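Q: I'm writing a short explainer about Nitrate transporter 1/peptide transporter family protein for a general audience and would like to include a description of its predicted shape. Could you first generate the structure from this sequence?
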Amino acid sequence: MVEMEEKGSHATRKKGGLLTMPFIFANEFCEKLAVVGVEANMITYLTTQLHMPLTKAANTLTTISGTASLTPLLGAFVADAYVGRFWTITIASIIYQIGMIGLTVSAALPQLRPPPCNHDRVCEEADGGQLAFMYVSLLLGALGSGGIRPCVVSFGAEQFDENDEKQTTKTWNYFNWYYFVMGASVLVAITVLVYIQDNVGWGLGLGIPAIAMFLSVIVFVIGFPLYRNMEPAGSPFTRLIQVAVAAYKKRKLSMVSDPIMLYQNDELDGPISMGGKLLHTKHMKFLDKAAIMMEEDNLKAPNLWRTSTVHRVEELKCVMRMGPIWGSGILLITAYAQQGTFSLQQAKTMDRHLTKSFEIPAGSMSVFTVVTVLATIALYDRLFIPVARKFTGLDRGITFLHRMGIGFVISVFATLVAGFVEMKRKKAAFAHGLIDHPHDVIPISVFWLVPQYALHGMAEAFMSIGQLEFFYDQAPESMRSTAAALFWTSTSAGNYASTLLVSLVHKFSAGPNGSNWLPDNNLNKGKLEHFYWFITLLQVVNLIYYIFCAKMYTFKPIQVVKKEGAEHGEKWSLLIKSGPENLGALRQLSK
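A: Of course. Here's the predicted structure. Afterward I'll give you a sentence or two in plain language.
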């Protein structure tokens, strides 16, 4: 059930809509400010404050980032199955707040860090206790973000009534707004917060986002009376497992000749089919056996571990069809992850002066990525969509699959360019005799890194928002928090893949004379360009895989029934729609 209205003595006000956006976006802004305020410059903190070797620090960072992107599965499960999105976001924000406080304390107290390096640059690495305190704080943050990330995006989207003709384009526009707000938050983090961390102190640099997170919880809770709240419809994972078990139990049965003979129960499926009933598809017929009716089955109160409805079978098919598209996004995140590790290390060796007295912090270089993301979103929303709409007839201009494909292509060029820039950086180091001096600044402008940062930002604006739209649109209506979690788990998998790839390349590229593509202490003696080109090759293969998956993909078909009203003789109209304009079709029924 969706809580739709708030009744007063004189009028009834519809809940949701644009009025709720400031409260929801405030929470997202502060959560992202806290996350990026930590991640953007964390490799600097690990290497300069905790004295970790570069490779270990890079892997620690991507592993924590991967974990933070994996926990949304847990948050989505709790929201969809038990407490709903509002309470999941609220509780998760409090947990995140505790983690941020712990991290701030870790940075502020000297006893929680190793002593500074001596004059001979001999550094003592952080001990087990110091690392443990920091890891616990980071993991609490990862757990908290797991409840915020998947729920905020779907909670915000459901504030727009899909059956209200006045909100025809609001749902898919929301994803652009959501990502724009998130980008604006990132922009503040990688400029203001990184500058404070590098030039004022880590305690204050981490304390500011902790305070912002506290304020966001207050603002979000204040908006409670305005929200449309979707009641939890039971564990989606349980339903998916029930279908798989029922199909396995009936695996030896012959398939029915006509799909209309498969079991359907509108009363049973009502709470989980708010946006329309999923129709039978011809793919993955082995799962259809779960809906074959047998004489011994009690169809009024069925044992769902033995007999499933067509709608529930199609829920599992939806999730399985999304799997290959989900997997294709992993390598893009793997490529993007290098901005916070090796690209940042490149920046630290280059001339970062804007003026004689002001130097750009290395951790702030990703500002060029974020600015490109924001500019691309604005141009896409205001210029590209109106033009594309005239040719395609689609409200959103192009399908989310096309949008994702464009992002993949741009990402290939981003890593290709990064390899050539690294060659130029090393050539400058060699020309000035700095190959053996990793801590000296090479007289080459850091702005040579701007193209790779900007291309990654452009790729993200296309790929990430397209992926969010894809998961939200193609997921069963009762599993949209879970679908949003899939977006973050692809980020998680990409970060883990980066950790694995860096470890393998570091191991197998090691030479007998100590040479390595990815050396621990002197990037000038490495072959980082080869690593970038290897990622480029992997992305080309991945692009071919994605094109194949996109061509083979079957959009979910839905059936919506609309009652015409007494003046029409209680007639019912039926719409069956498949494709990325499902939501638009649903809205047309309300007219």
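A: For your explainer, you could say: Confidence is low (pLDDT under 50) at residues 1-12, 566-575, 581-591.
Q: Perfect, that's easy to follow.
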